[in-house]
Write a structure and sequence with these properties.
By secondary structure, this protein is α+β, with helices and mostly antiparallel strands. Helices cover 42% and strands 17% of the residues. It is built from 22 helices and 17 strands.
Length: 589
């Protein structure tokens, strides 16, 4: 797990080593264990390392003949690739086999062979090209920007901004998406001039320009396939065991984020099966009386599997103290309040481990969200479009101009997801896997964990699991009002004490309650921020914060504005500074 960056210019031009080192410094939090540079001809590559596999010889860049590679992520099947292809590797790095496969099999062979989470940059000096590849689910990030004379890329937009390659100018359409959806969609980011390499994409750069684009799909083609429940359970069990086994490959200690919900309990049950030692598990809870959390369920699951369990209590005072740096970690913004427990859990886990498995992707693969059940029904039976309303559709008196095109990106994803043979449920799942997953949930996991140099792994988001479960009949995913039926049934057999068919309590971060407690003081500070004043009416913002506890819509809207105020100071004004919420918002400069 690392940070990567680089520049590919026109022939005859040479990248500035000082710019490469500036990008390296901006990504130091992603890789505190070492760094490396590669400069050859018109291409420069930079790497910061978090040492997970092959601690002794795994430094990057890696070289093979005329090719050099830097990578962020893990290629979990590296041992199988070495053996199956008789690769002559000189290190134990998981990223060396793809380098040899690229030299031997070219673009398609190398990209199709990798199983894992990765963003890879390859410089092929023989063919004078740079190749950038991102994993199919978009677990690991990669961004590009056109610069004078060519293309620059980095694991995070902040590296492009802090190196002076791109100015921090806001794209209005993405800002509207952020306010309404809490994340932004598609290849374009919120910054003008910075785009994402989309999940599964391989980009070829030659003579300073993009000349080829290829795409590897995350999901198998086709609609539901006929299979009985027992056969589906056996197939999932085999695929999930294989995935978790591979996701545990590490030369450093690893643990689990355990919410007590279905997905993380399933990962825990499988980890307990595969590990002789107790699993290290970490759970978040809040100090707000009556706040919904799953601490007791997590404790029960940990006890049943013999896991060594740690609970992290998050207090309101700690949130106000650390929220500016939590939000600053989200340079590609996602206003998901789950960034708060994710950041604190990563800080605690880093005391003992460098790798954490989590349950992200379970809802999307198995059909867990309530919006999926609604999407399955035609409109005349009460079905409705997912995300039909945005956060400010219910709070209409705050923004200066109501966002009008905020659904364009998610609507395009929904249209693309309705492929021949897919059911309404599959289309809704596929749209989430294309946008919500990489641009919210996985973005949150990446930034909040890498802020503490912790690697996050997601065994549900694996080609083997997708092949086994994506094309299940709707009835094995959703039955009546119960989503994730197959996963619940599997868990009822392998960890029955988790009571997987019991009504879900839910895990909600009490941001509205926290904001309501300090709304009188916080509202005017948020209203006065340049980023907020540009899009919202200050008097209405102050009133919104005073009444943030009135209903969930006002609470969410207040949270989105608070997030944006802090984010804008950190990444647009570049004036966030150190300190708590009050100090940062009150500072001028």
């Amino acid at each position: 797990m690392c940070g990567i960056a680089g520049i590919a210019l026109r022939q005859g031009m040479t990248p500035d080593e000082g710019v490469l080192r500036a990008m390296t410094r901006a990504l130091a939090h992603r890789g505190p264990d070492g760094s490396g540079l590669h400069l050859a001809d018109n291409v420069g590559l930079a790497h910061t390392r978090l040492a997970i596999i092959d601690l002794a010889t795994g430094d990057q860049p890696l070289f093979a003949g005329p090719a050099a590679l830097v990578a962020n992520g893990e290629v979990y099947n590296y041992l199988e690739l070495r053996e199956a292809h008789a690769l002559a590797c000189t290190t134990g790095s998981d990223c060396e086999p793809p380098l040899h496969l690229f030299r031997r099999d070219g673009l398609d062979g190398y990209a199709q062979a990798m199983r894992g989470m990765y963003a890879v940059a390859l410089h092929d000096r023989h063919d004078r090209r740079l190749v950038l590849t991102r994993d199919p689910f978009g677990i690991k990030p990669l961004y590009i920007a056109q610069v004078e004379g060519g293309i620059a890329f980095a694991s995070e937009p902040r590296a492009l901004l802090e190196a002076g390659l791109v100015a921090p100018r806001i794209r209005r359409e993405a800002r509207d998406e952020l306010m309404q959806l809490q994340f932004t969609t598609g290849a374009e980011t919120i910054f003008e001039g910075i785009t994402r390499v989309v999940p599964g994409e391989t980009i070829v750069v030659a003579d300073g320009a993009i000349v080829e684009r290829h795409r590897r799909a995350a999901l198998p083609e086709g609609g539901p396939e006929p299979i009985e429940a027992e056969a589906a359970l056996a197939r999932f069990d085999a695929a999930f065991e294989d995935s978790v086994r591979l996701h545990q490959r590490s030369d450093v200690p690893y643990g689990l984020f355990l919410s007590g919900g279905i997905d993380s309990n399933a990962v825990l049950a499988m980890m307990a099966r595969l590990n002789e030692k107790p699993v290290l598990a970490y759970t978040a809870r809040f100090d707000v009386p009556g706040a919904a959390d799953e601490q007791q369920a997590a404790e029960a699951a940990a006890a049943a599997t013999g896991a060594r369990h740690a609970t992290v209590t998050i207090t309101e005072a700690e949130v106000w103290r650390h929220l500016p740096e939590i939000v600053a970690a989200m340079d590609d913004p996602a206003a998901d309040y789950a960034i708060i427990p994710s950041w604190f859990l990563a800080r605690r886990a880093r005391q003992e481990v460098k790798v954490v498995l989590s349950g992200e992707g379970g809802d999307e693969i198995f059909g867990g969200y309530g919006r999926y059940r609604s999407a399955m029904r035609p409109w005349w039976l009460g079905g409705r479009q997912p995300r039909a309303a945005g956060s400010f559709d219910h709070v209409t008196d705050v923004l200066r101009e109501p966002p009008s095109t905020w659904r364009d990106g998610i609507a395009a994803a929904e249209a693309a997801a309705m492929m021949p043979g897919r059911t309404r449920l599959m289309a809704a799942q596929a749209a989430d896997i294309a946008e919500w997953l990489p641009n919210d949930l996985l973005l949150k996991l990446d930034r909040c964990l890498m802020a503490h140099a912790v690697e996050g792994r997601t065994p549900f988001l694996d080609p083997g699991v997708a092949a086994a479960c994506w094309r299940l009949p709707d009835g094995l995913k959703v039955r009546g009002r119960t989503g994730k039926w197959l996963l619940r049934e599997w868990l009822s057999r392998h960890l029955p004490s988790s009571r997987p068919f019991a009504p879900k309590q839910g895990f909600t971060v009490p941001v509205a309650a926290w904001i309501a407690n300090v709304g009188e003081r916080l509202g005017p500070l948020v209203a006065a921020q340049p980023g907020v004043a540009e899009i919202a009416r200050p008097d209405r913002v102050a009133a919104l914060f005073r009444n943030a506890g009135g209903d969930k819509h006002r609470g969410f809207a207040a949270w989105h504005l608070l997030f944006y105020a802090l984010w804008h100071r950190a990444h647009v004004e570049r004036a966030g500074g150190d300190g708590d919420v009050w100090e940062v918002l009150a500072s001028r400069g």
